[in-house]
């Protein structure tokens, strides 16, 4: 049996809202990314040098809870994410992005409570662009628990939200 886990970027409607005021109430402050490499949550790829991007505060669990009626309570948090400062076409593929570094997969229940997490370590081969198999295995194991409604993939070094995967 093959299971597909679809990475979900920040939705286009939400991006429009964040470009007006982020989830902390701050206005958009675009800048040119001279070096590139910022993990963009709108299209799930790294920025290219010279792109116009912004760092905004985003509350992914709060926004999911507003859609579903969940109440995450103290698990509601907001943090920094990079997005394009202007319109973005979104992701161009379905591969799990940002699989080239240690990541934490946080599992959440349908009522918004955290059910645990897991550290995923990338493959250690030079030719590896990321460990899709390791991420797929970790997500499959997470969703084997019927209580898990969604998983947040986060950066280990800063704890930043990268994207979510919802139960199919």
What does this structure look like?
- The chain is α+β, with helices and mostly antiparallel strands and 168 residues long.
- Helices cover 17% and strands 29% of the residues.
- The chain contains 3 helices and 9 strands.
- Strands 7-6-8-9 form a 4-stranded antiparallel sheet, covered by helices on one side.
- A hairpin with a 4-residue loop joins strand 2 and strand 3.
- The model has no long low-confidence stretch (mean pLDDT 91).
Question: Summarize this, please?
Answer:
The chain has 168 residues and is an alpha+beta fold. It is built from three helices and nine strands.
List the helices and strands and how they pair.
Layout: H1 12-18, E1 31-33, E2 39-40, E3 45-46, E4 51-58, H2 60-68, E5 79-84, E6 103-109, E7 114-120, H3 132-143, E8 148-155, E9 161-166
Total helices: the number is: 3
Written as H for each helix and E for each strand, in order along the chain, the element string is HEEEEHEEEHEE
Can you count the beta strands? 9
User: Oligomeric form of this entry?
Assistant: single chain
Helix content estimate: 10-25%
Structural class: alpha+beta
Largest sheet: 4 strands, antiparallel
User: What spatial form do the alpha-carbon principal axes imply?
Assistant: globular
Q: What is the overall pLDDT average?
A: 91
N- to C-terminal distance: 14 Å
Strand ordering within the main sheet: 7-6-8-9
């Amino acid at each position: 049996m093959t299971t597909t886990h679809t990475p979900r970027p920040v939705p286009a409607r939400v991006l429009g809202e964040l470009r007006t005021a982020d989830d902390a109430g701050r206005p958009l402050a675009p800048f040119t990314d001279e070096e590139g490499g910022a993990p963009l949550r709108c299209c799930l790829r790294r920025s290219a040098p010279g792109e116009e991007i912004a760092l905004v505060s985003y509350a992914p669990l709060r926004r999911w809870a507003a859609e579903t009626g969940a109440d995450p309570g103290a698990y509601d948090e907001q943090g920094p994410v990079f997005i394009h400062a202007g319109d973005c076409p979104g992701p161009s593929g379905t591969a799990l992005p940002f699989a080239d570094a240690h990541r934490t997969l946080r599992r959440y229940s349908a009522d918004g409570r955290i059910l645990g997490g897991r550290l995923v370590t990338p493959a250690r081969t030079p030719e590896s662009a990321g460990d899709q198999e390791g991420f797929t295995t970790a997500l499959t194991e997470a969703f084997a628990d019927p209580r898990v409604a969604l998983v947040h993939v986060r950066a280990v070094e800063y704890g930043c939200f990268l994207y979510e995967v919802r139960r199919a």
